[in-house]
Amino acid sequence: MSRPPGLSVRLKLTLSYAGFLVVAGALLLAIVWAFLLRYVPDGDLTGTGSGGFVPNRSDLLRAFAPAAAAVLVFLLALGVLGGWFLAGRMLAPLTRITDAARLAARGSLAHRIDLPGRQDEFRELADAFDTMLGRIEASIAEQKRFAANASHELRTPLAVTKTVIEVAQGDPERDVDAVLDRLAVVNRRAIDLTEALLTLSRADHGAVEQERVDLSLLADDAVETLVTLADARGVEIDVSGPVATVRGSVPLLRQLVTNLVHNAIVHNRPDAGSISIVTRIDPATATLVVENTGAELPEDVIVTLIEPFQRGAARVREHDKGLGLGLAIAQSIVRAHAGSLSVDGRAGGGLRVTVSLPAAR
């Protein structure tokens, strides 16, 4: 939107400095008149002195007025020149911030202001702007990486479907039921992936409802839902801890806990695995900790598990290993509820996922 031209901030500050200086000088001259010249009598004072010329009030005013006017003109000139210089020095950091904002508007997010000097309002603004640029740059990079991964994941079931159809068309003795079963499996995976992407998008951008939710109750529900899968994989689950009440969206928080428990089940030991789910509460924070046994992962792999489509095992696909979106969705849900999520390795293998959310008052 175009704006009509106006006075620059530097010119406004210059005029303000000059005006203040002239007004201060005029007040000083007025004080001289009020407290000194008014006590000098007017009229002929020749006979009151020792015989010489004695100036009266009118004589003093005629001598004082031109000098006062010259002083005011000098103060005006000094205020304009000095104010222009001082305003330029004061606004120099703002110029750097403006230049950085223009570069960012043109798409250059790698630029940083890095304003030197001690902390003040301009440097605080510059630091906040640099932080904002860093977050925007990281967010855009994450979105590009997510779009590339999502495109790859969505392309896979389509390519498999195309291959199954082409093979079936070229086989006159094809088993129609087998082909339909294969297509149903591939279609189910594509639907699951799409729903997971929609959940992730809603968690990132949707408004969070404010209801009282008990994390310990959600943990019990998740275990009850996934107990069949846990029994099939020989995983024992232990749930403990007090009531931990937070405020938020019940569906999203249920999805959060379910994702963490499902992730702990399918990435556990092949036999005799275990999961520990613990809730904690203090006046400010409600905490949910999900620990599972499993393979020992390097630290550089653990830090990438929250990223979308990362499965912690070179992206190996298994029928129940999920889509690589479980922890990414959990992270988005936690962020939408003003909380934090951390993933750490356990001694002897496995993971510990800690979710901290503001406790309901």
SSE layout:
Blueprint: H1 9-35, H2 57-105, H3 121-170, H4 176-205, E1 211-214, H5 215-232, E2 235-240, E3 245-248, H6 250-266, E4 273-281, E5 285-292, H7 299-302, H8 326-336, E6 340-345, E7 351-358
Parallel strand pairs: 2-4
Antiparallel strand pairs: 1-3, 4-5, 5-7, 6-7
Helix pairs in contact: 1-2, 2-3, 3-4, 4-8, 5-6, 6-8
From the structure above, extract its key features:
five-stranded mixed sheet, 361 residues, two-stranded antiparallel sheet, 57% helix, alpha+beta
Describe this structure as you would to a colleague.
The radius of gyration is 38 Å and the shape is elongated. The two termini are 45 Å apart. It contains eight helices and seven strands. The protein has 361 residues and is α+β, with helices and mostly antiparallel strands.
Rg calculated over all Cα atoms = 38 Å
DSSP strand count: 7
Residue-averaged pLDDT: 80
First-last Cα distance: 45 Å
Regions with little confidence, pLDDT below 50 for 5+ residues: 313-321
Number of helices: 8
Q: Assess the beta-strand content as a share of residues.
A: 5-15%
Morphology: elongated
Helix content: 55-70%
Order of strands in the sheet with the most strands? 2-4-5-7-6
Kindly name the structural category.
alpha+beta
